[in-house]
Amino acid sequence: MKNLKFVFISLTFGLISCHKHNNATNATINFLEPTAGDTLQFGEELHIEGTIQGDGELHGYTLNLLNSNTGQSLLSKSTHDHGESFSFHEHWLNNLTDTANVKISVEVEINHEGLKTSKEINVVCLPN
Question: Is the pLDDT of residue 11 over 50?
Fold first, then answer.
């Protein structure tokens, strides 16, 4: 009886620990706004919105704005949530004093083994 009890407990823990996640192998990133090549006037708000869709469970994403002329980070947002899809929605005010190309990039962590995918677009920011 003790052996049967041990086998039952072992099987129960084995089944619980083998819970299988539907890990993603790919993700699609879509920018709804802005459109690549858009131009922003000084003081204008940049609206960044889009979606991320995985073919299984994703492990978060990072959104970055980078002044390509100077290398300065203008905005960085990250989430390490797990899900099959994400929506991003951020705002940034153009306060740059020189004309600049701004790179908007989204990098998705597909799994915890380091598989990632990214997409970027560029906009132009004008000074006042």
Answer: no
